[in-house]
């Protein structure tokens, strides 16, 4: 990482990975806002979970599941977390497609 970027994030002891994580979350919120403005209501549907969910619900379920996947990955396999990240993306795809 470049020293000037670390100095800018140093006040909170952030790494570039942490900044990327929060940047992606912010981007997801912007995209979800744009989708909601374009098509209000989030296309509610009843999925395999037996719940009626909207896009926002499915995003929340995906983010929550990703957190648990990463924690379980750390508990059983340790680092690196690339496998957990790939598994989380696949899980998010399943949730958005079928939940």
Structure characterization notes:
The chain is mainly alpha-helical. The protein folds into two domains: 1-40; 45-99. 70% of the residues lie in helices and 4% in strands. It is built from four helices and two strands, in the order ααββαα. It has helices at residues 3-9, 16-38, 55-76, 82-98, and strands at 45-46, 52-53. It has a two-stranded antiparallel ribbon with strand order 1-2. Helix 3 (55-76) runs antiparallel to helix 4. The N and C termini lie far apart (39 Å). 8% of the residues are buried. The model has no long low-confidence stretch (mean pLDDT 86).
Rounded to the nearest angstrom, the radius of gyration is 16 Å
Provide the number of structural domains: 2
If you average the pLDDT, what whole number results? Answer: 86
Major sheet: arrangement of strands: 1-2
| Terminal Cα span | 39 Å
Proportion in β-strands: under 5%
Number of strands: 2
Number of helices: 4
Q: Shape from CA axes?
A: flat
Main sheet: strands, sense, barrel: 2 strands, antiparallel
**Which structural class best describes the helix and strand composition?**
mainly alpha
Q: List segments where confidence is low: pLDDT < 50 over at least 5 consecutive residues.
A: none
Helix content: 55-70%
- Give the SSE order as H and E letters: HHEEHH
């Amino acid at each position: 990482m470049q020293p000037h970027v670390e100095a800018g994030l140093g006040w909170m002891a952030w790494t570039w990975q942490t900044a990327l994580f929060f940047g992606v979350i912010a981007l997801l919120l912007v995209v979800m806002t744009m989708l909601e403005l374009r098509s209000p209501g989030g296309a509610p549907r009843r999925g395999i979970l037996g719940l009626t969910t909207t896009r926002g619900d499915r995003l929340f379920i995906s983010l929550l599941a990703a957190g648990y996947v990463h924690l379980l990955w750390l508990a059983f396999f340790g680092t690196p977390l690339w496998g957990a990240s790939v598994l989380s993306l696949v899980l998010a795809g399943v949730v958005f497609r079928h939940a």
